[in-house]
Amino acid sequence: MVSKKIKSITPSFTINISAKVAKLKSEGKEIIDLSIGEPDFMTPNAGKITAKEAIDHNKTKYDMVPGLIPLRDSIVKKLELENHVKYSTSEIVVSSGAKNAITNALTAILDPYDEVVIPAPYWTSYPEMVKLCYGVPIIVQTDKSNDFKLTVKQLSEAITDRTKIVLINNPSNPTGAVYSKEELEPLIEFCINHNLIILADEIYERICYDHPFVSIPSISERAKEITILVNGFSKSAAMTGWRLGYTASNIEISKAISTLQGHLISHPSTIAQWAGYGALKEGSEDMKHMVSIYKNRRDTILPILNQLENVGYVNPQGAFYLFLDLSAYKKFYNNHDSFSIAFCNQLLDEHQVAVVPGIAFGNDDYIRISYATKIELVIEGLHRIQELLSFIKK
Description:
The mean pLDDT is 96. It is globular, with a radius of gyration of 21 Å. Helix 3 (45-56) packs across helix 11 (270-282), helix 4 runs parallel beside helix 11 (270-282) and helix 5 packs across helix 10 (251-264). Strand 3 (115-120), helix 6 and strand 4 form a beta-alpha-beta unit. It has 14 helices and 13 strands. By secondary structure, it is α/β, with parallel strands linked by helices. The longest helix has 22 residues, at 284-305. Its cofactor is pyridoxal 5'-phosphate.
């Protein structure tokens, strides 16, 4: 009874893991959950106060499809001040989360069978989103020697006359890798020369540790013209449940996205938008504090990772994930279809630690760990991973 399109979609690994963790917890088991990519902070007080004031003043009616003007104005100021790129308010479309922003962009751009280049490892929903929008995901296997960042050579070998979009997630989920300006410039130039649109998912852009973040559309006016910038409030402002994201793009694309959104959801919750407005206006110190905590956690964890036997990892320069290379242990799981799933199941069942198998991100040699939780839990989780690895070798 359901569509062929839906039958082609792979269920979310992370949702399945969350369901299993919930079941085990309901049975009374204490689980260290390092699987979820959700900040362990609360919405900035400024966001909550502004949302409450909006309710008290009955700001609960329909509003403009692309979002509240005060919020879009604040996003414009934020992008100019922090990302060093100038947009007009009419080039911003606020959505119900960054997922909604991405699917809006894909739907507005793709015709059936258009191709979208997706570097692997990738966020687990990207290929499924492309398929739901009648596009074709083209997965490009990148190399761990440069932290799995896409190169011009890899891109040039992947495109065809059907290629329309190149998707770049920076900082990366799941790897935590961050592109430098020198790495982005040749990719942008290639896309300009081949009439390709860049879908730049920069949802983790505030969570950047070692070097200033470089936003793709800030590199040049030509880069800005071909880029659809996706951002939101879930990660940097710990506003996951408010479901608030946005796109910034040229006026032709922003109008198309707004037209589409007008028929699908009208606009995001007005109260969520006022919360986002408050967070942007007065929550910057809260956001900086979160990032400082994440950085301290990362710096505490890396020496522990270096002690894990035969375990490699991508140096996390942003986001709040560890992408661990366990390929040295793959030979012990030859009777399983997926090494990373088998390992993660054993880790959860026998050591009560939940992490995400790398196959969810297109690389079965790895697992992803989130350190968006108490550092004590992360350290204990890593110790239990070491216990399992030691047992495997016996």
